[in-house]
Amino acid sequence: SQTIHQWPATLVQPVGSPLSLECTVEGTSNPNLYWYRQAAGRGLQLLFYSVGIGQISSEVPQNLSASRPQDRQFILSSKKLLLSDSGFYLCAWSGDLQETQYFGPGTRLLVL
Amino acid sequence: ELKVEQNPLFLSMQEGKNYTIYCNYSTTSDRLYWYRQDPGKSLESLFVLLSNGAVKQEGRLMASLDTKARLSTLHITAAVHDLSATYFCAVVVRGSNYKLTFGKGTLLTVNP
Questions:
Q1: Residue A34's closest chain B neighbor by CA?
Q2: Are A43 and B103 inside 8 Å of each other by CB?
Q3: CA–CA separation, B105 vs B5, rounded Å?
C-alpha cells in the first residue's frame, strides 16, 4: 500500500531564515505531488503541484519554491521566511491527475 | 474564478440527530470530494462524486451531488461523538489540470 511521509512534523523558525520541508511517497511510482498550505482557521490553498521529476507548477506567487529531485520526493523551500508563512503545510499525492488526492501528516510551521 | 462555499461553517449537534452540510460551487465541475480533518491532523478522504445524481454512503455519512444546481450535500444520520471533526468539500474545475479548490470547512461538534 502507499504511504506518504512528511518531515519535520513541527518547526519553529525566525523571520528571514531559510526553510526546507520534505515529502516522500512510498509504494507507488510516478505519482502526482502537491503542496498545500492551511492557515489557522482557513481552508487549504494549493501552492505547487508536480506531474514528474523536475516539473513544477506554481499556483500562487510568493517567496516559496518547490523542487522534485526524485520521482517520489517533493521539497518545499524558502530562502527567507516571512511571518505570513506560518501555517500547516500538507503534501498530497495522486496516482493520476483525475484521481483522489491523499494527504500526508503535515508540517506545522511557526515563524517568529 | 471558482468559489466554493460551505455552510454552515460551525455546527453543534446532539448525538442521535440528523443534519446536512451544504457545498455550493460557482462554475462547472468535473468532480467533487469530501474530506475529514480531525484537530491537528491531516485530511482523510471520505467520498469522491463524479457525476450528476451520484450518491455515496459510508456508515452514518451520505454524500450527494447535483451538478445542475452546483450543489453537494453531506448528510449525517444519527450523529455520534466520533463524527466530530472539520469537513471540507473540494471541487475540481474542468480544464484546470485537476486543481482542487477547497471550501473553508465545516467544524462539526457532536455533543452527548
A1: B99
A2: yes
A3: 9
User: Are B102 and A98 in contact (CB < 8 Å)?
Assistant: no
Hey, what's the cell of B83?
A: 463524527
Question: What is the model's pLDDT at position A97?
Answer: 66
Distance CA B11, CA B2 (A): 25
Chain A residues with at least one Cβ partner in B under 8 Å: 42-46, 49, 57, 59, 90, 92, 97-98, 100-106, 108
Q: Do A43 and B88 touch (CB under 8 A)?
A: yes
pLDDT-based confidence at residue B30 (cuts at 50, 70, 90): confident
Contact B76, B84 (CB under 8 A): no
